[in-house]
Amino acid sequence: MASREERRERLKKRMENDAANRDKSNYKPLLDLSDYEDVSWFKAKKGKNEIDIMPFEVTTGNDPSGAEIGDDQYKLEYWRHGQVGPKEENVICLLETFGKPCPICEEKKSMMDQGAAWDDPEVKALSAKRRCIYNVIDTNDTDKGVQLFDQSYHFFEKELFGAAEYKDPAFIFFADIEEGYTVTFRGSEETFNKNKFIKPKDFDFEQRDAYPEDIYKEVFPLDAMLIIRPYDEIQALFMGVEVEEKEEPKKEKTTRKKKAEPKAEKEEKPARGRRGKAKEEEPPEEDIDIFNCPAGCMAGKDWDNQPPCKECNDDDYERCGVQYELWKAEEERLEKEAKKEEPKEEPAPTTRRRNKRR
After folding, report:
1. Fewer CB within 10 Å, N- or C-terminus of the chain?
2. Pairing outcome for strands 76-84 and 89-92
3. pTM, full prediction
4. Do 85 and 159 belong to one domain?
């Protein structure tokens, strides 16, 4: 049995560790950071924020937006499932990110087919969230160099582009190293479910100096760092089944950010498109008018085109957006069926039957 002095020393170390990590979140990004020791994350603060968004060179076939190897890209946009399995891990949603089968999305659809509603907490917990990661330089703290910035798509990316198009109909090319702009925004302290967070608002753009080509050596190759678990592994994690981890040789960590060597494409190229759904996917046949908008809008049909949509919380906004796509798909399906069922006029002259559509 440990002595009182030993127990006191262990307690002291635990308390010191808790003190050092009191401001850290349990959120784990879906990036492999094992090659880097000096990763710094930009955290938006209350008040004015000023960042330069830096492009990186795509080196794999895993860019979710479909950029080619060798192209410049300014973000890594992906969908994630959170709190998966007993360990509550984050995983890439294979369906929404790459248009491939996802066991979690399949379970969600199965629950809804059996009568569960969109606002059922268990269904809601299985929904994927849309996020973006950027390489940024905080112009008020340049000593930190290039930092990673992970944000909700709806809170940052969507608002950023809305501001860029509003400021200049020809579009502001903010992420170019030579002709780009500093992105400024106000960090507004908001509260959701008793938790405080900083929400970016009031985006604007300011002139800045050009960056040298050497900046490409400092940015992170985000597409090469994305952790993409295979279907079977996600399913095992979701079901709480232990997955035997293969021991890989330890790699020497680097303190500088360098471009990764291009990797051979092992999988077919991710589908392009806003949500990246598989072409073969059939729209669900259930009644889609099931989510009641808290602001009184027509859920799904009024998505993103009413004044309350700007103030809608992230979860409701995403659910309404998904419902909009389901509604549009259902409308298109019904329209196609109606065209098929239209009675064909029987032509009188027999000589014209060859010209009928079969």
Report:
1. C
2. antiparallel
3. 0.64
4. yes
